[in-house]
Amino acid sequence: MKNVIIIGAGMTGLGTAWKLSENGYQVKILESDEEIGGLAKTIKIGNQNLDIGPHSFFSEDKEILKKVLDLFEGEKESIQYSKGRKMKMIFKGKYVDYPLSIKSIFQMGILSPLMSFLSFLKSYIKILIISLIGKKKNNNLSVEEWAIDNFGKYLYLHFFKPYSEQFWKIKTSELSYRVIPSRSKKINFASTIKHLLINKYLDLAKREPGELSLQERESLPTYYPKKGYGEIANKISKKIENKGGEILTSHNVEQVILKPNNTFDVKTKDKVFNGDVVVSTIPLNRIINKIHPSPEKTILNSANKLEYLSLILVYLITNKRNVLDCEYCYFVDRTFNRVSEMDFITGNIDDDKENLLIAEISCHYGDEMWNRSNEEVFSSCVKDLNEDNLLKKEDILAHEIIKMPSVYPIYRTDYKTHLEETKKYFFKINNFFSIGRQGQFYYGDSDQMIRFGFDTADKIIKQ
After folding, report:
1. Dist CA 390 CA 82 (whole Å)
2. pLDDT tens per residue, range 352-387
3. What per-residue confidence (pLDDT) applies to 1?
4. Measured between alpha carbons, how far is 284 from 193 in angstroms, rounded to an integer?
5. What is the reported pLDDT for 351?
6. How far apart are CA 450 and CA 51, in angstroms?
7. How far apart are CA 262 and CA 225, in angstroms?
8. How many CB atoms sit inside 10 A of residue 414's CB?
9. 298, 366, 436, 462: which has the fewest Cβ within 10 Å?
10. Spatial distance between the Cα atoms of 295 and 357, rounded to a whole number of angstroms
11. Which of 228, 180, 236, 221 is nearest to 53 (CA)?
12. Who's near 168: CB < 8 A, 6+ residues apart?
């Protein structure tokens, strides 16, 4: 019987352990935090359940969707169902529905849709001419190049550039277009219009995983556990433990020792765990520095150049209801990039209960924003919300601030070189897997992370 040690109890690690434990494997998960779930956990503070950012569960992957919903079998009242999410974004000072719809095109006014179309047409003709003369296609586009090619310069200048640079704190010319979520290759001005006029009316449930564009994926039905999004992780953990698996929290891995017989010693502060297989789901630039014997300097340098964006979450508890009139709203030129209203996500319509807003601020670990005091961060958010006539300081009953150091992989234009070097190194280690959002350097959603876990478990089982 193989002993499998999994580093990290996020959705990827839990997904791997879930599948392996169902197939009779001895599984131990080592989690450095006191809570499981990673970026999909829920923390209890006072009488509030605080998710690490706003989440709702959705998936076009039929197996993953069924497995997760089956966790709540017999408890239908404990999970909120929604036919689709309502989101907005700021476009040239106007609140516009997101993803784009016929309604949101009119919300932009008359000039913007016309300018967008003409600008896209110009880019489309340019690309068509390049294609006809047989010029080699550039597959390493920056965000600037990708956005202009696929949407035209007008939308690039008025949406993609300001939002991307505010979010990533890096120039769009220095960012790979890979920072756009994983469905990005299927998005362009033409496919967006097609979605608005045609795909919107197709049965999305009949499509295969990976076939949906970003707009279509955002239109999928969503689910939210009423005790908090972290309830999904909690229920998966019970499945693992019922099959004999162990989940050890407050166990920070300090060293992974590669033994000559292709087994591993995984050391924490107080214990050493022996395993036949190790699955790491923590950031690549952290796990690489825990390996012993230490990799060559060139490998260490490549892995350490793979950076992650940090996130500051500002939770605002208020009596005021219907502040945004949607789940999420994306902002430009504010302290925050996005504000979420949890009433719309959780389905809470009880006027006697407090409302919860979450303002998300991206930054780089150790930069000026990260080092601000909690009171400075809170004051800056309230100032912007007040100027937008959304919320006043006196409306806020209480607030909490949580800082997460490693959240989004940063895809600079040279990231592929460093990622491939790092992956080659790990590939040479027998029975070692680095997977998931942090371990694969992949920007994806919870359902995709569970899928990575399932697929890795299948590889281990086949071996």
Report:
1. 25
2. 678 999 999 999 999 999 999 999 999 999 999 999
3. 59
4. 38
5. 60
6. 18
7. 41
8. 12
9. 462
10. 44
11. 228
12. 175, 179, 309, 362, 410
Question: Checking DSSP bridges between strand 355-363 and strand 396-409, what pairing results, if any?
Answer: unpaired
Q: What is the C-alpha separation between 450 and 209, in angstroms, rounded?
A: 13
The amino acid at 228: G
Using the CB atoms, write b or e for 310-339: b if 16+ within 10 Å: bbbbbbbbbebeebbebbbbbbbebbbbbb
Q: Which domains does the chain have, with CATH numbers?
A: 3-36+228-306+412-462 (3.50.50.60), 87-219 (no CATH), 308-409 (3.90.660.20)
Here the tokens at position 446 are 């919870």
Evaluate if residue 260 carries a pLDDT over 90: yes
Regarding beta strands 396-409 and 308-318, do their DSSP bridges make them parallel or antiparallel, or are they unpaired?
A: antiparallel
Q: Is the dihedral of CA 112, 177, 101, 324 positive or negative?
A: negative
| Amino acid at site 23 | N
For 279, half-sphere exposure in the C-beta direction (CA atoms, 13 angstrom radius) is 30
Element (H, E) at 363: strand 355-363
Asked which of 215-229, 287-301, 321-335 is least confident by mean pLDDT, the reply is: 215-229
Segment 137-173, tens digit of pLDDT: 666 789 999 889 888 898 889 888 999 999 999 999 9
| Cβ atoms of 341 and 324 closer than 8 Å | yes
Write down the pLDDT at residue 4: 98
Q: Indicate the length of the chain as a whole number.
A: 463
Phi and psi at 145, nearest 5°, equal -65, -45
Q: What is the bridge-based pairing of β-strands 277-280 and 432-434?
A: parallel
Tell me the pLDDT band of 450, cut-offs 50, 70 and 90.
Answer: very high
pLDDT at residue 254 greater than cutoff 90:
yes
